[in-house]
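User: Can you help me understand a structure? I only have the sequence.
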Amino acid sequence: MSYARQMLGSHPSDLKLHADAEALAKVIEAAGDCAQACVADTDADLAETHLAEMVACIRLCQDCGDICAVVAAVLSRQASWDLGVVRPLLEACRAICRTCGDECQRHAPRHPHCGVCAEACRRCEQACAEFLTIMS
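Assistant: Let's start by predicting it. Here is the structure, written out as tokens:
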């Protein structure tokens, strides 16, 4: 069992969110994993010999990592949410994961670390999309 699932199950709040706990845990985990993958991919990109080719990938990974980290943090605060903030945040996460995943996939044949990051981006994009559907 993941830490996200354990924390969701052990939260003392009487306030119950209108959210599926499994889907919520999936988004928190995917966003946290994607943030980590983006940080690691950025570091690996910076070590590549053809750095100029990696500039767009680096920038997108930085943006994606930051947004994913915020999504994981905000969704982990389950005592109260402002749905007017959470929905656009999830939409932004889904959008940056799609864009970053596309860019990383473009580099994956030459740079395996980009393939790993693209996979993490796709997983997070999908988790955000599924959770947005449940929230609607």
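Now, to help you interpret it: The mean pLDDT is 90. Residues 21-46 form the longest helix (26 residues). Let me know which part you'd like to focus on.
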